[in-house]
């Protein structure tokens, strides 16, 4: 088997630009290190880093790999029966949520890996095929994934049971999910440019905000004062936590 690089996540890109009145020196790029695995499919689908356990979770094909972020050595791997499209550590580092390829009649597409026992929890749930659609509450008690009903399911970490199904508002695939730091609200954005603020405690709609193009990312700041939304065209807009517009920039 050829050794394949799994992740550019660990590649530190150091760009040094010295601007003077005369000229600008050229930039330099330095790679610190990378992780490796023996695998004929070298393409990495997703990466998640945990600063608590100093480990890195990365996926390729049907495999989830765990590496040390200290010496980048390989710790263990998990082989699933379906492709792994997304992985995300819980903030406390105790679990890794794993999203697998799914169909509308397949309920076996979201799994939790217990990092203490390095085992897969027996209870699994249903998600969809959208990557980068796993979100955790800051206290790790809940996680959310996009579903096949153009909505989002919120699960309990303790028993993997559905707490709320946020359906009926989006008319296309959800492309971003984010909990507020106090876990009171959750953002969901879709490919048509609709962003929704939900009450994460009761599953009720709080506010809708429309954008002219596909939403590619969303998230709150750590002080829970505001959130930002990015679109496929490179626009980034910020709002107060209640949804009042602040400003926009184009990147």
Question: Could you characterize the architecture of this molecule?
Answer:
- With 251 residues, this protein is mainly β.
- Helices cover 0% and strands 45% of the residues.
- The protein has no helices and 22 strands.
- The protein has strands spanning 3-5, 36-38, 46-50, 55-60, 63-68, 74-79, 84-89, 95-100, 110-114, 119-120, 134-136, 142-146, 152-156, 162-166, 174-179, 185-190, 194-199, 205-210, 215-220, 226-231, 235-240, 245-250.
- It has a 4-stranded antiparallel beta sheet with strand order 3-4-5-6, with no helix packed on it. A 4-stranded antiparallel beta sheet has the order 7-8-9-10, with no helix packed on it. It has a 4-stranded antiparallel beta sheet with strand order 11-12-13-14, with no helix packed on it.
- A hairpin with a 5-residue loop joins strand 7 (84-89) and strand 8 (95-100).
- The protein is globular, with a radius of gyration of 19 Å.
């Amino acid at each position: 088997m050829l050794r394949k690089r799994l992740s550019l996540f660990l590649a530190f890109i150091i760009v040094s630009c010295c601007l003077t009145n005369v000229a600008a020196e050229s930039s330099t790029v330095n790679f610190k290190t990378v992780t490796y695995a023996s695998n004929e499919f070298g393409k990495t689908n997703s990466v998640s880093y945990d600063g608590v356990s100093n480990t890195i979770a990365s996926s390729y094909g049907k495999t989830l790999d765990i590496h040390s972020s200290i010496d980048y050595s390989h710790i263990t791997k998990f082989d699933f029966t379906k492709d792994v499209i997304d992985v995300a550590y819980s903030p406390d580092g105790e679990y890794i949520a794993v999203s697998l390829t799914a169909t509308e009649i397949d309920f076996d597409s979201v799994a939790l890996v217990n990092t203490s026992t390095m085992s897969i929890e027996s209870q699994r749930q249903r998600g969809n095929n959208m990557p980068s659609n796993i979100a955790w509450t800051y206290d790790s008690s809940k996680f959310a994934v996009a579903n096949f009903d153009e909505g989002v399911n919120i699960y309990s970490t303790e028993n993997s049971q559905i707490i709320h199904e946020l359906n009926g508002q989006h008319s296309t695939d959800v492309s971003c999910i984010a909990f507020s730091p106090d876990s009171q609200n959750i953002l969901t954005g879709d490919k048509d440019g609709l962003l929704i603020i939900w009450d994460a405690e009761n599953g009720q709609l709080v506010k809708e905000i429309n954008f002219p193009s596909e939403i590619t990312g969303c998230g709150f700041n750590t002080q829970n004062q505001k959130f930002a939304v990015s679109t496929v065209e490179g626009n980034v807009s910020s709002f107060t936590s209640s949804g009042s517009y602040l400003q926009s920039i184009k990147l």
